[in-house]
Amino acid sequence: MKFTLITLFPDEISSSISFGILGRAIKNKVIEVDYISLRDYSDNKYQSIDDKPYGGGPGMLIQAEPLIKAINKVRSESNKNIPVIFLTPQGKLFTQKTAKAYSQINQLIIVSGRYEGFDERVHELVDNSSEISIGDYVISGGEIATAVIIDAITRLLPGALGDENSAKQDSFSEGLLDYPHYTRPEEVEGIKVPEVLLSGNHNAINQWRFKQSIGKTFDKRPDLIKKRNLTDEEEEILNEYIKDNKE
Ligand code: ADE
Asked: How far is CA 44 from CA 39, 41, 49, 115, 240, in A?
């Protein structure tokens, strides 16, 4: 999959995606990352691409024209209507479901916002584009958000993870949080690893893990349980978890 990144600070993104799983995915050509410097599309000798907001107020905005020129150039080179993501806290929330949907396509343009954001007209003028937010908080620019999105999508691509099952058991992959994990030693300050995990009985282990997954999601993220519409059997498993954890 190819990511084309339009940004003022390419180094901030490349330094975040050069290591570990992402670094390996680039090296092994699971993903390809292209950087487009927005300043190259400025129409003035100072290479500025921002200006003051009409109506007053603090900060500067990224102008529509250089951005549209940059996007059109990328699209014209590939003869395709490649989807565009504009990163902004005003966007639709990025979730595992969004990551899964984007992992099915072969090229994505991601635009990092800076300053107070973009001239609103880009959203009308660039077709096949979406405003995306990585969470209900504000960070200083879209570059870190871009790295987050590339990471979440890349994990889902064949060949990115050592173990193909890792992504399947990640939190949210089934609309639930991941179950708890334990490693050696068997006892830490009086707290033992749950018996069942030492039993070698894989059926029982899987059942325990699923019950924990439903139960922990109910405890910490009841909104996800509501969204998922539990089956009767899952409802029963959740009731058992609640009973197990009552005292
Ligand atoms: N830029 C600033 N805050 C952001 C957020 N929460 N998501 C995406 N881009 C952003």
From this structure: 10, 9, 9, 19, 67
